[in-house]
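Co-fold these.
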Amino acid sequence: MYLTHALHRGVRYWPDRVLTVDGDRAFTTAESAERVARLAGALHTLGVHEGDRVAIVALNTDRHHELFFGSWWAGAVANPLNTRWSAAEIVYALNDSGSKVVLVDEAFAGIVDRLRAEVDCLEAVVYVGRGEAPVGTLVYDDLVAAAEPVEDARRSGDDLAFLLYTGGTTGNAKGVMITHRSFLTSLLSYQMSGAAVRADGVTMLTGPLFHIGALLGWYAQQLLGGKLVFVPTFSPENAMRTIQEHGVTGCALVPTMIQRICEHPDFGSYDLTSLEFIGYGASATPDSLLALVMEKLPHTQLVHVYGMTETGVLTVLNGPDHRARRKLGSVGRASSVVELEIVDAEGRPVPPGTVGQIVTRGDHVMAGYWNKPEETANAMRNGWLQTGDGGYLDDEGYVWIADRLKDMIISGGENVYSAEVENVLAGHPAVASCAVIGVPDPEWGERVHAIVVLRPGQSVTIDDVRSFVKERIAGYKAPRSLSILDEMPMTGTGKVLKRELRASIAGR
Amino acid sequence: MYLTHALHRGVRYWPDRVLTVDGDRAFTTAESAERVARLAGALHTLGVHEGDRVAIVALNTDRHHELFFGSWWAGAVANPLNTRWSAAEIVYALNDSGSKVVLVDEAFAGIVDRLRAEVDCLEAVVYVGRGEAPVGTLVYDDLVAAAEPVEDARRSGDDLAFLLYTGGTTGNAKGVMITHRSFLTSLLSYQMSGAAVRADGVTMLTGPLFHIGALLGWYAQQLLGGKLVFVPTFSPENAMRTIQEHGVTGCALVPTMIQRICEHPDFGSYDLTSLEFIGYGASATPDSLLALVMEKLPHTQLVHVYGMTETGVLTVLNGPDHRARRKLGSVGRASSVVELEIVDAEGRPVPPGTVGQIVTRGDHVMAGYWNKPEETANAMRNGWLQTGDGGYLDDEGYVWIADRLKDMIISGGENVYSAEVENVLAGHPAVASCAVIGVPDPEWGERVHAIVVLRPGQSVTIDDVRSFVKERIAGYKAPRSLSILDEMPMTGTGKVLKRELRASIAGR
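Predicted complex below.
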């Protein structure tokens, strides 16, 4: 299994179909392959050899597409970096990965000098933005135009394909090593599990291309034929306009993105009927949001995926389950060839209904963390990847996430799963979004604390919150204190930054 | 990737659903898994250890299902043998594979003594047939009932899963080594290519379970949930009755089977509307037959698969292409992650339209021939499996089979592809089935010779045949001589035995 396969296949099957669209720039499959072969030639000229890393830090663009294929074609490893990161974090990841080349766009023009000064391994900084290239950078299009195309190095199987940094917001970023085989196994296993990317569809790439979720959709659509439409950054207007203009059939979104689309005042003025499929995940999804999207987009299949960079797609909850309003709180069942268990602290499987840690093994699992044998050994025990997520199986094998183990609150000796409380609280009419954390408390050990962002013109008190939650779930799970924020702190991939909330609210 | 996964998964997801049906015998998933774990225990008791081979020679039965999983569960390799073989061929394959246990049914009761006498490696012969067990055999059900269930040995990845003997009719049978990974990769790649086995369907297993084609459908249906209905041996009545009775949604058939169903006098008296999907392949399919089946089964998607034991599914021609009557003579495009090329005698890729040998590489390819390093080296060159089939790519990447290279006729210096002539001849109204071979000829080197089986009450002359063919394709391709047979000699998997025709007609 090797990832440049999709491009060779596309050239043989549909060379003249448009493959990539980015604003007013479009390339056919044959043009794209020609550019990739030239980019690989340029990378060789810049000193990139077999196994080397090549980075990109840019908003979503067709340059990502070309860089990923170009890296593999040159025999290298693609290292797309988180665009929400600080300059220090980017410098750290580039040094840690030993990337020889980095592509930057206009948003990162301001840090080029710093990259050149602080990242010794860099042979070149290449500018993929609009407007004039910053001093000290090479111009991407000139580089591609001037280079001679080279033969595909055809790395495959256990060779590294991606280095994907996670956890960067903590200062302890780890590079997750994804091989050609692990990426393709995850993708094939997911596709076999039912409703997913379809042949000859149009996939909109609005989720960030440094994230495994967007990468799987990006690749699957090519393997099956179809068009890729790159959207630099998410906004509800961008997404709706793109869906209408290009007849988008599928995309991957995080719940907050779906909510912002469905609640947008101009929702009704766009034709979104081409949209057959939304894959969503990456954070807990309130039932109220699912009800909303099924009402607003009645023709769209919803597919929940659960997984992480280290594993690709682990579980799938398919469209039909959504329409039947069946098991909506579950993340679904393990995808077709994924092995998944719930284990206790000693690694022994627990019976259905019992919460434990979700672990998984198989060809879909990462090869380890780059240059971090200790962290790798911690994450992989006897071949099982430790997800760090708590959850349980029901009697039909559906997985229910209890919580990130580190997000579990122990209050008065009771385990409180923040995700459960958040799911209830999200249904409160005044609440636009919410998070629940544990804060130190002299009486309870930890106390349940709610953070909410209110809908326009609404207000809420801690008593309102307590009684709303207590009417629905056990009283000990109800928040005992409340913060109201204007905006929820989020990661680049749409997850609530609980660590940041804890630091600011609980002082730890 | 490991093959007992489907059973574990089934037990978790749908333990109480009926999984296997064989006549009046039915087992749920949980019952089936329990029996498999016991059978594995029994195999251990009989001396079967990690990596050992366990054989079965029987008409299709749920015992195949149990034996395959039981072998893997015990850490062993499943070795299902061709039921059309002579006793000598079966003895050869059992000795060659070193199988420790063989399961036989009533059709092979008569050779038990010979197996015991001539196969030294055998620890036990187990009887899976009806009626009284022959002397010297163990009774399958007693063995399973008496055994203690054991833990799954969970062989996986590059471990051997199947030993599948091919070419047995020639006396030079080779054991094709299929690993857990190669089997699953072929299956996932195929499923991703579109219309195929569907979730919660009912698969009828009427094609022989010693053949890779039937095995892939058998496994896919389990992984996706659903029911397996075993039919001991194919007849049009059996097939139609089973489809009606069990609401069969899919099956794999060879072209002659499809023809016999569609032309059966009782065709109209069965309800076949549940049948959504027929996968077919294994021999050339005349356009006239495809037209017939699309007319007779208007609700059924036809999917052509091309491949061989050594490779699993290589190419797929999907349902929509059939309905659009598009490229029907092609075998389709390479399945999603399969790498396929057409090469010349030196192994160099040839341009579209040029005939060469079809070669393939990737995780779907066999690990080699059992105990035959020389044959393996001949078949695998620089990682590419040499299929021995001649074919070409068109300008959309569809594969067209010219011929088995050894079946190509060179007549008067021109290459004649027997498949092309057969496709034309099959459309002759008097012809029920046909084959075309080359026979030695003093004038032409080889001359094109047709063998036909006539429809009832019809007759045909060599002049009829020549003029019918010459009206449709180049004159040098028209047969110069003709044999009329009552029945076409076929292999157990429905392929015309050209070697036998050559021996009897051309004297070689």
